[in-house]
Amino acid sequence: MGPGDIVRVHRVRRRLSQLDLASAAGVSTRHLSYVETGRSRPGRPVLAALARAMHLPPREANRLMRAAGERPLHTERGLEAPQSAALRSAIDRMLSTHMPWPALVTDHAWNPVRANPAADALMSRLAAAGGPPPPSGNLLEWLFAPDGLRPLVINWSAVGPFLLDRVRQESVPHPDLDELAARLQALAPDAATTPRIDEDAVVVPLHLNVEGRELRLFSILAGFGAALDAHIADLRIEYFFPEDEATCIWLEDPE
User: Fold this and answer.
1) Can you name the CATH fold of 82-252?
2) Mean pLDDT throughout 149-158?
3) For position 224, what pLDDT does the model report?
4) CA angle 155, 148, 121 (to 5 degrees)
5) Residue 238: beta bridge partners?
6) pLDDT tens-digit readout, 160-211
7) What pLDDT, on a 0 to 100 scale, did the predictor assign at position 99?
8) Residue 218, Cβ density class (10 Å: 0-12 exposed, 13-18 middle, ≥19 buried)
9) pTM (2 d.p.)
10) How many angstroms separate the CA atoms of 30 and 7, rounded?
């Protein structure tokens, strides 16, 4: 896929006209049209302006640059790089201070990167009660799989459609999530419906039947709003909390 194709895909996904994008990026509509059709080879300043105008995530901005033979706009050192030591230490502290409740770090596609001991313990118990994670290790594929966690989800009619819709929304800036959304719908066709959510609910919880006991959880996400590195900007921390006292007790002493 060439740079013009990538620009056009992102523009269309954001429902921007060529005039809208050209005005926001400070280029002419004709020039943008030539870029998208491949009649004009855009330079680094034009590509950077288009990426900023569409608020491309760092990883997508880098993909655009590489397609044009340009060096990336953002570093891609990742969390394990020496330059990320302070951030890595902060994340480890955030995970540890959330004990005895589960917390984990995932990338933008729900692939696990880090977890605290409570999250590791919870996932081990879930694997024993439902089924092991898929070869991909993807947490949503595990949750949606009929031979994975889906049979454990008591409120599936709310959780499944809600999460599938969320993946589709997040696929606007991250086109690679289209494939994940397709896999999830193939695993659970009934998720492509309107979520059945209690009108008095303030969050969409996750209710699980584990070993004959109902666990009631909800989660809060934390992201890296000031991250410049493409890999780190992709990460988020998900903190799980008990919704009731019985779940709190189980998390603190699952035996």
Assistant:
1) Beta-Lactamase (3.30.450)
2) 95
3) 85
4) 90
5) 104, 221
6) 999 999 999 999 999 999 999 999 999 999 998 887 877 777 889 999 999 8
7) 95
8) middle
9) 0.89
10) 14
| CATH code assigned to 3-67 | 1.10.260.40
Distance CA 238, CA 121 (A): 16
CATH 3.30.450.180 intervals, the chain: 82-252
Looking at every residue in the chain, the average pLDDT score rounds to 93
Distance CA 242, CA 225 (A): 26
* Start and end residues for every CATH 1.10.260.40 domain found in the chain: 3-67
Query: What does the chain look like in DSSP terms, one character per residue?
Result: --HHHHHHHHHHHTT--HHHHHHHHT--HHHHHHHHHTSS---HHHHHHHHHHTT--HHHHHHHHHHTTPPPSS----TTSGGGHHHHHHHHHHHHHTTTS-EEEE-TTS-EEEE-HHHHHHHHHHHHHT-PPPTT--HHHHHH-TTTTGGGBTTHHHHHHHHHHHHHHHTTT-TTHHHHHHHHHHH-GGGSS-----TT-SS--EEEEETTEEEEEEEEEEE-TT--SHHHHT-EEEEEEESSHHHHHHHH---
- The sheet with strand 213-223 has its strands ordered as 112-115, 103-106, 236-242, 213-223, 206-210
Torsion of CA 176, 186, 122, 207, to 10 degrees: 120
Place of tokens 């870029």: 35
